[in-house]
Amino acid sequence: MKKPDLKRLQPRIILIAILLVSAALRLYNIDFGKPHTFHPDEMKLIAQAGHLLDTFFVDKDAYFVFGVYPVFFTIILAFVLAFYILLAVVSGRFESLHYAQIAYENNPFTFFLAGRLFVAFLGVLSVYILYKLCKQSYNRRMALVAAAFLGMNFIHVRNSHFATVDVPATLFALLALYFMIRIYNRDELKDYLLAALFMAFAVAAKFSLLFIALPFFYICVVQFAKSKKSVVVKKITAAIVTGVIFFFIASPIFLLDFHETMGGIAGTTEFEKVGKIGSGGGFLSYWTGKQAPGFGMFYPNSIPDTFGIPLTLLVVAGLAYQIHRHRHRDLLFLLFVFSTYFMFDHFAYKAMRHILPIIPLLLLSAALTLDSIVDMLRIKRFYQNIILSILVVVFVFPGVSYSLYYFSVLNEKGPRSRAAEWIEHNIPAGSRLAVESFAPPVKPDSSTGRFYEFVSIRLTQRQGGLAPVFIDTVETCDYYISDGFSRSFFNWEETSERYPEIVKDRRRFFDYIENEFRLIKHFKATDEHLQPEIAIYKNVDENP
After folding, report:
1. pLDDT at 496
2. Residue 150 domain-assigned?
3. Confidence band, pLDDT 50/70/90 cuts, at residue 33
């Protein structure tokens, strides 16, 4: 019997180990928040997916329920939920589709979890595709390093826990780039078509990924220069037709109402330029960290804070190295990285999830540089690999440790959940409660007749002079519930610099609450960046 070739098996074993660790990190405490769901985008997407299923995908309003938010991932999510329901019915978990609908309406967390597990799988698949991409472009050793960097990168691990669009869009972009590299390597028609297909899917999932077309046209120009021109033109034409067809299939809102969709995209673009109260940052703020720090699922919110300083420096060195040697493969990746980055850097609203699609390519740059440095050592390949392995562990350790800490804290019963239980047991039914943006998830109980009237205090409106309006509103309320996240908007330095009058106005309102209401309960957070502190105040005027 022939013995296995351990030298040939070793890279596969390492890759499997990387994928297993990547999966473990993405599944760790993926049921955080149970039974509540606190991610605002998850709530929107699961609700829209359920509405699409309920209307059998024929209700136009279901596609525009959140404006012109891209619906491709929501459509995919609807099929994921349908598959989960089918399994639940077949296994007996749900007696019928009617019971599935009741469960969705009354206890939807398992539907959120199904979406999260699907995205976690796509996150691990992204690690594998980055490996294949780097192996096609450079070499297998460097591909393993890049896969390890992405598999254990905090920002990618974090977003792989959420049933949101960012990780799927990143995967589509990576697949498009993978087939572009295959065009460069072998120039076959099916690679043109597949590159166009995944470009269409990437843009349909996230309209902001439109610059994925730049590397495609770059590689087409390269092939046009070195191959038979008439053949290349036919392949490019077929690819463009394929991309356009599948984009409109994956983005039906353009077909349902083209005018409304284009108007909505223009409006969203203008909003992104203006930003939100308490968001944004200066030029290159993703790198400098001078931007909104984020909170909860959005904290931290800069490259150094999410990569760690050593890996950030290696990324910068890698980008410089790729620019310096300017090979076709390097330029293909850099075109997408820089065009996408500067588009988001131009916007006033900054969030790390926005630039997630270029994170794998930043890590590719770091892996290329580290592999090249180690390769220059005049020692045996075996010792090079040992040194490289040690360095990879050093670079990924901060991301792994913080990922474990992050989801350990999010998995705790946080202040919002504890406050909700306290309210249900201590505040009389029928009370009028004024709440800020991140209120405790108090649910009405029809069996006991326990209902509350909630009044939303929208502190982050881009308008000054609202303190008197807020005061008039809360005077009619029995209780006021504040949260640390809403207050954090007005504690950020740049908010004070850009909107001093609004900050002054809100602080006047906060002072009123502290002076005229009585603090009766305070729920503190393990980490105030990840969970908001909740303070409950009682109105103590002369007619309590």
Report:
1. 87
2. no
3. very high
